[in-house]
Amino acid sequence: MAKTFSIFKDRRYTFLFSASVTSQLGSVIGMTSLVFYLLDRFSSQPYLATFNELMSTLPSLLVFWLVGVAADRMDRQKIAANCDLISAGLSLGLLFSLLTNLLWLIFAMIFIRAAVSKFFAPAEQAIIQGVLTKKDYPVAAGLNQMVSSLFMIFGNGLGAVVYWTAGAPGAIFIDTLSFIISAILIRSLNLPKSVCLPNGRHRWKSFNFKTIGADFGQGFHYIIHNRLLVSLIASFVVFGIINGGCSVMLIFILKYKLVPDSYQFFSVWGGIVAGIGILVGSLLASIVSGKWPYKTMIVVGLAFSGAFIIAAGYAQNVVFFLALIFFSMLFVPLVNVAIGGWMPCVVDPKMMGRVESWSTPVMMLSQSLTLGFILIAFPSLISIESIFFFVGLLTIFSAIYYGCFVQESLKMIDAPAAE
């Protein structure tokens, strides 16, 4: 544990970590309240909650070809900070749309803000890669998992409390402030040119479709000539389907099957239970990350998580359901820590943005298709149990894929763990 927190001796990472936590916390509060608002105000139209999630994922398919090129060619620090500032302005637009009850404008603001936010992650990850050493990458990945678990424990609860006391507008106002604070933290960093501009300085006027296409193509060729990267990027299809299903199916099973009259209360507890599962799993993952091969972590995590997801869909009471959700989340950090510790070790820092720009749209495309399917099919064509079964079964199949068909590639993953 002391090794984990020693990473905060680096002031630059501390500021980046704090900025990420701040913006994520505000977003969790704001978006949780927005889902409650849609489900309460339009209770007979559950597709609106699904459409809300769809508006958050579709923008990746429009800007994915540009975000990685921007992170590798432009100032990464300015990109990250300006993303936060623009998102803050768009959050004010979202606040206005809520106060004026303009549903179409709510979804428009969510869509545009999601598009802007896609530029943040490649830039931030590339900066973190530049300020940390290779031995710190798994530690950073483990910390990200712990933070995610804490958001799941407290985020939905905070979002619900803010929604009950200040309504959705109050939550969106907090969301706006979080982006502003995050931008200030990032802009206050003193980063070397080699981190912010690893490929040298470029001017905006030098960007055109030809140069952007060439850079994006370089990222594609970099990936396809590395069997390990091909396997990993392909797996993001599965992760997208899992994320798409989980983003709506947990609250749907509470509202439309288990506890229709108190789904908000139990959705908070669902977030707490899932967060505790990920928090405990993160601690376990940090312990075994130096002892287990990355392949073992991935296969075990996917197989057990998928089995418990399927079981959760057929739970007949909310207590049993929450217990199964705990165990399904317990094994997720094994997968994320393994992948998060490996990625920076094998990707050239000069190519990190372009590689990252491929993983996100692949995942978001499958996530969007999943949400689109749920939007059309639920509840008229498929049951909530079917969603759980499909997501869980696909997770198990991905474990089988890693275990049986990626043997040669995953030897490369094990190398960093052995070091």
From TrEMBL:
CDD domains: MFS_MefA_like. The chain crosses the membrane at residues 12-39, 45-67, 170-189, 228-254, 266-285, 297-315, 321-342, 362-381, 387-405. Pfam families: MFS_1 (PF07690). GO terms for cellular component: plasma membrane. GO terms for molecular function: transmembrane transporter activity. It is a multi-pass membrane protein. InterPro entries: MFS, MFS_trans_sf. Keywords: Cell membrane, Membrane, Transmembrane, Transmembrane helix, Transport. It is found in: Cell membrane. It comes from the Bacteria. This is MFS transporter. The lineage of its organism: Bacteria, Bacillati, Bacillota, Bacilli, Bacillales.
